[in-house]
Specification:
With 437 residues, this protein is mainly alpha-helical. It folds into three domains: 52 residues, no CATH class; 122 residues, 2-Layer Sandwich (PX Domain), CATH 3.30.1520; 225 residues, Substrate Binding Domain Of Dnak, Chain:A, Domain 2 (Up-down Bundle). Strands 3-4-5 form a three-stranded antiparallel beta sheet. A two-stranded antiparallel sheet has the order 1-7. It has a two-stranded parallel sheet with strand order 2-6. The protein is elongated and about 120 Å long. The termini are far apart.
């Protein structure tokens, strides 16, 4: 192939498609003379360069996290073991404190629901953490039990992430008697750097995730409401069985002077429905602590994931809008031909390079507007960071939620198996009692 054909190939595949010329020259190392390249070899190296450029990845520096007492601690567990109400005064509200025990270092602290939310808000500025629903104050004890379980899931998640649990604010939250909310947490990592990434694979994943979240949200809401309704139905059924037990006890009392066999049947029936009520109470507790708790947790994770996707879209639009405005500005500057207004780097100002730049608009567009190009790079890096964060957030939350759902479903199945055995024993005992009555 002729030298002209190779030059045309470079113009078509590198310049016309907007790839950076300097980056391509660095990519091909020292072989800048086209005579040294076979045409097919040049096609192959151009494709490799384009693939690399389409996967935009950089590692940028940030502050380094100083490891704390729990950073690398094995078998670390923080458990919300219970709650207690504290009356601050006659004219003051009652405070509810959740007790946290951290093993094996034996830290014990008490935190309010508001302090958990404050920690979540501080972390959310830089890190991927689960959502905690806003507190709904209620005198019903069951409300605090639901909150306790959600707070436990939140702690489980953040302690699995070594980057997050190495932050000083986490140690403070788990160890200090008093916790200072609304602290400013600088972005730090254990390695002292962080990655930014933009590529087609992440873009495709984000697009699919956005579609998934929009479609799964109403279904999860429906599942959450249905499980809640199931619990209510079971509670009503439980109440009915308990009332039946009381009625049969009354019938037993009224039948003392009547047929002994009838009297025995009444007491057997009373015992049967009393035991059924107890088993049903256990079943409600099982459902509440497994499937219902997990559905509630998953339902409240959709909103923060959507928020991250909205942030990503906002940054993407900023890059897109600024890029289009900069392109229009460069086209106008090129048409005007006043090179002094082009804001060129000093390295381009010798007469030979300047003539090359002026002769080709695509090259001129890459070289002019140095300040604006730098700002566009900053915007691109900001988008690359939130782009990677959105990908990692969705992946980590879905991975965690699926693992939790599996664990809760297994626990539900195991406990309900025990419940079925209790039913079988109860019916068997009832038949034996009827046989001898």
């Amino acid at each position: 192939m002729s030298l002209e054909q190779k030059q045309n190939l470079l113009v078509k595949e590198i310049i016309d498609k907007g790839f950076n010329i300097d980056n391509f020259q660095k990519f091909i190392d020292q072989r800048h003379d086209l005579e040294e390249w076979d045409y097919d070899e040049l096609v192959e190296v151009i494709k490799k360069f384009q693939d690399q450029q389409n996967d935009y990845f950089q590692v940028l520096k940030c502050n380094r996290t100083i490891p704390n007492a729990i950073s690398k601690l094995e078998n670390l567990t923080s458990t919300v073991v219970g709650y207690e109400k504290v009356q601050k005064g006659i004219f003051m509200s009652t405070y509810v404190y959740f007790k946290i025990e951290t093993k094996p270092i034996n830290w014990v602290v008490k935190r309010t629901y508001e302090e958990f939310i404050a920690l979540k808000n501080m972390l959310n500025k830089h890190y991927n953490v689960p959502n905690i629903p806003n507190q709904r104050k209620s005198p019903v004890e069951f409300t605090y039990i639901k909150q306790l379980r959600h707070l436990q899931m939140f702690l489980n998640f953040i302690l699995l992430d070594q980057e997050i649990r190495s932050l000083p604010v986490i140690q403070d939250f788990l160890s200090l008697d008093s916790f200072q909310p609304n602290q400013v947490i600088p972005y730090t990592t254990l390695s002292g750097d962080f990655g930014i990434r933009i590529n087609k694979q992440i873009a495709c994943f984000i697009k699919q995730s956005d579609y998934f979240l929009n479609n799964v949200s109403p279904l999860q809401k429906k599942a959450y409401k249905l499980v809640k309704q199931l619990m209510k139905n079971m509670q009503q059924q439980n109440q009915t069985m308990f009332q039946l037990s009381d009625v049969y006890k009354e019938l037993f009392k009224e039948s003392k002077a009547q047929n002994a066999r009838l009297k025995d049947c009444y007491i057997i029936a009373s015992h049967l429905f009393e035991q059924l009520s107890k088993i049903q109470t256990d079943n409600i507790k099982i459902l509440n602590e497994t499937i219902y708790a997990q559905q509630r947790f998953q339902f409240h994770q959709i909103t923060p994931l959507k928020d991250i996707l909205n942030q990503r879209e906002k940054h993407h639009n900023q890059v897109f809008d600024f890029s289009n405005k900069l392109k229009a500005k460069k086209e106008k500057l090129y048409q005007q031909g006043e090179v002094v207004k082009w804001d060129l780097d000093e390295s381009y100002l010798d007469s030979f390079k300047l003539e090359q730049i002026k002769s080709t608009p695509q090259i001129a567009f890459q070289c002019m507007c140095k300040t604006d190009n730098s700002h566009l790079q900053v915007l691109k890096n900001q988008f690359g960071q939130i782009n990677l964060r959105a990908y990692e957030a969705i992946e980590s939350v879905i991975k965690y939620a699926s693992a939790q759902f599996k664990d809760h479903l297994e626990k539900f199945a195991q406990l309900m198996t025990t419940s079925i055995n209790q039913y079988q024993k109860l019916w068997s005992d009832t038949l034996e009692n009827l046989a001898v009555s």
